[in-house]
């Protein structure tokens, strides 16, 4: 692995994010000869332009957790594939991501490794946070996160891999897209004078905590009751292509007269779920 994860944990009154990042920057300069700076977004940069560390924090009632990463030797091609190219047709209250140029520290210091950087950070942290009287009794401790040492940790790991944890905490968002309407379906929508020629239908899905809440179709369906049936049928369904497809299959079963329209809208909604993961 070429990415070092750091977490500063302590009392909320001692939370100083800038100081933590400065500690990392000072260690890189003092031990490895790498000059860094910290920008207004609390990113650690090298050469005043390339990001080597991003940061996040969680502040509780009494506790504070500051998490950051340090890029040592990652596959930047894979990194850009994972972080780049986010689907744009999503409305939410989430803070927008800001794309940044990145650089591996190993490009500036070839002898640097995740293990050696970790060791140097730990050693300097101990020296800076211990009194002379306690230095002989405290130091760097390696932790083996195994069930035998930390009973219950396996169950915690299993929980963190479940759908409910990964997707079930997702804040509310609406995803939308326009789809070309087959001529055979034109009569099912209020198209005014368009008469279905080159018609486009906009479908929007709203999800909260990973479950569907609402659907909107523009132009509206001529059969107003059908949209209510669809809303009732998808409400509470997981925002997954397979679950959405199954929900529409059940709706079609009870509304055979609108089967073609439901099949089209079902494919649109499943496509939206796929787009969200792009």
Structure description:
There is one protein chain. By secondary structure, this protein is of the alpha+beta class. The protein has 2 domains: 3-130, Bira Bifunctional Protein, Domain 2 (BirA Bifunctional Protein, domain 2, 2-Layer Sandwich), CATH 3.30.930.10; 173-277, CO dehydrogenase flavoprotein, C-terminal domain (Enolase-like, domain 1), CATH 3.30.390.50. It has helices at 17-32, 76-83, 114-129, 153-160, 163-166, 224-234, 241-254, 259-276; strands at 3-11, 36-38, 44-46, 50-53, 55-59, 63-71, 90-92, 173-180, 200-208, 211-218. A hairpin with a 3-residue loop joins β3 and β4. α6 (224-234) crosses α7 (241-254) and α7 packs antiparallel against α8. The longest helix has 18 residues, at 259-276. 18% of the residues are buried. The mean pLDDT is 87. Residues 1-133 form the BPL/LPL catalytic domain. This is Putative lipoate-protein ligase a. Keywords: Ligase.
Key structural traits:
four-stranded antiparallel β-sheet, BirA Bifunctional Protein, domain 2, Putative lipoate-protein ligase a, three-stranded antiparallel β-sheet, ligase activity
Summarize the main sheet: 4 strands, antiparallel
Percent of sequence in beta strands: 15-25%
Mean of pLDDT: 87
- Helical content stands at 25-40%
CATH level 3 topology of the largest domain: BirA Bifunctional Protein, domain 2
């Amino acid at each position: 692995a070429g990415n070092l994860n750091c977490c500063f944990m302590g009392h909320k009154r001692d939370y100083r994010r800038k100081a933590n990042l400065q500690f990392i920057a000072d260690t890189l300069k003092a031990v490895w000869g790498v000059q860094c700076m910290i920008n207004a977004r609390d990113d650690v940069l090298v050469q005043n332009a390339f990001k080597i560390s991003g940061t996040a924090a969680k502040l509780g009632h009494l506790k504070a957790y500051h998490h950051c990463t340090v890029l040592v030797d990652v596959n930047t091609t894979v990194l850009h594939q994972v972080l780049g190219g986010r689907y744009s047709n999503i409305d939410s209250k989430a803070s927008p991501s800001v794309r940044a140029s990145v650089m591996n520290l190993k490009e500036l210091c070839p002898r640097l490794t995740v293990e050696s950087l970790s060791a140097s950070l730990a050693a300097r942290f101990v020296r800076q946070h211990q009194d002379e009287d306690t230095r002989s009794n405290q130091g760097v401790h390696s932790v083996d996160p195994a069930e035998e040492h930390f009973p219950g940790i396996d169950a915690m790991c299993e929980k963190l891999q479940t759908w409910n944890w990964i997707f079930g905490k997702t804040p509310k968002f609406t995803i939308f897209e326009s789809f070309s309407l087959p001529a055979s379906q034109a009569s099912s929508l209020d198209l005014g004078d368009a008469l279905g020629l080159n018609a486009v239908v906009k479908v929007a899905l709203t999800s909260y905590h990973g479950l569907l809440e609402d659907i909107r179709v523009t132009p509206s369906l001529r059969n107003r009751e059908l949209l209510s049936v669809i809303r009732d049928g998808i409400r509470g369904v997981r925002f997954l292509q397979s679950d959405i497809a199954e929900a529409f299959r059940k709706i079609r079963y009870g509304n055979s007269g609108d089967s073609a329209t439901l099949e089209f809208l079902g494919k649109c909604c499943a496509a939206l779920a796929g787009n969200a993961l792009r």
